[in-house]
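Give me structure tokens for this 427-residue protein.
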Amino acid sequence: MKTSTSRFEVPVLLGTQTLFNIGFYAVVPFLAVVLANDFLLAGAGVGLILGIRTFAQQGLFLAGGSLADRFGARRMILIGCAVRAAGFFTLAASLSLGDPKLWLFILGTLLTGFGGALFSPGLSILVGAAQTARDRGQPTGAKRATLFAWLSVTGEIGAVAGPLVGAALWDWGFAAVAGFGAIFFIAIGLFLAAALRRYAPEGTSPDYAGTRAKRQAQPGSLRRCLADRKFVAFCALHASDLLAYNQLYLAIPLELERTGLPTQWLGLVFAWISVLTLGLQLPIAWLAARIGAAATLRCGYVSSALGFGVLAFLPATAFGENTAAVRILCAVTLLALGHMSVHPAALSLVPGFAGHRGTGSYFGLLSSCGGLAVLLGNLLVGWLLSQAGQGHIPGFLPWLVLIIPLVVASWLGASLVRRSGLQTQGA
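Here you go.
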């Protein structure tokens, strides 16, 4: 395929991320409300079910990536859309078939997670292939933001628009919201079935090409990925980023509560993160393209660590009386800047680690390590926060547990990338 073909492909891939997030965020933010109000579950039960949903997605990324290497990225994207649509239909059915059925609701949440585990690695494969084709076609020394940085921006647009769509449909009930999500993912699948049928970026790997003979040229991609010690080490180090960013859903809300700020502040925190992502993701990627991947990773991990350092070592009145919110927004800003730096950079490095091998397992392992770190790390951080709240341990200890992996990643991760010769053009 020629470069002109990949130019057609890129808007489709970036637009797909927006559509995925619109459909996802139109439904998923309301799951906790339904579990509490319709199924009358306590907070622990709500957290357990939502945690299982998250792990069903993040934890199975490795399986989804391996399947994409074996059967093709396009095929797994379409299957993933169908599975997520089935999950949303199941959620709707749990409330519309007589009395609310919790087992059906749980099944629906698992299907939504599994659907994401199928199509997200496939999308990353195609974006990585398009990035490789774009890098090959641009002049030597040209520096610009990677497609993964653009993917973060287009995804954030969907994350902002999705809850607004769900809220607009809420008057018809959650079954209508979930039904919309199911129909929306069916429409996405039909669109992608046509849009991705003939087009593949130049230099794309056999997992996209689609013929059985080419796909069979990638046996054992999962085994080779797990045997790649450098990449496994990089995944383990980079897992600190997802664990850190996930504290927006765990530690930051608890800190807001501890400092006596109203719950409405949480909405403002997420609105501020959306503003930062939409306004600064591309400038950060532009700068990262000039300083290189290793320096970008080091700066990003340190930025996130500094964010937790603000919470660990600066008191709530550090910026004056009644400025606890300023302290938290300062920490959140540093955390968001760190994530915006290292997340696209890490994704852009995956094709370099994979070489000529199937990239699906590599993208999957990167995400699954992060999911496992969140599952285990949140248990420890949540317990430490509860103990610190009762005065049993120093208040800085939970934040220190989050700071240390980031500092180690900034030191070892950047060095690993530099030694591996993977100084990509962008981040």
